[in-house]
Amino acid sequence: MIKVNCFAHLKELAGGNHIHIDKKELTVKELLEEVQRQYHIQTDSVLVAINEEYAFPDDQITEYDTVALIPPVSGG
């Protein structure tokens, strides 16, 4: 099972700080598809970090990785 940390408004949409995907491994693209399907969270502009580094759609995630969903951030 892959544990995904959620930040900012994604925590509210997910119903908590973490969500769980019942897979041992998948790509970033597959993760975002699962998040949309299971949690109905729009992921078009969400960034994914694996082990504290930004990830690309084809990067592989395993159940041992630290994964985070990061929404777009704006500042002033």
TrEMBL record:
Keyword annotations from UniProtKB, A to Z: Nucleotide-binding
Gene3D superfamilies, per the entry: 3.10.20.30
Annotated GO MF terms: nucleotide binding
Gene Ontology CC: molybdopterin adenylyltransferase complex
GO biological process: Mo-molybdopterin cofactor biosynthetic process
Family: Belongs to the MoaD family.
Protein name: Molybdopterin synthase sulfur carrier subunit
Originating species: Jeotgalibacillus alimentarius
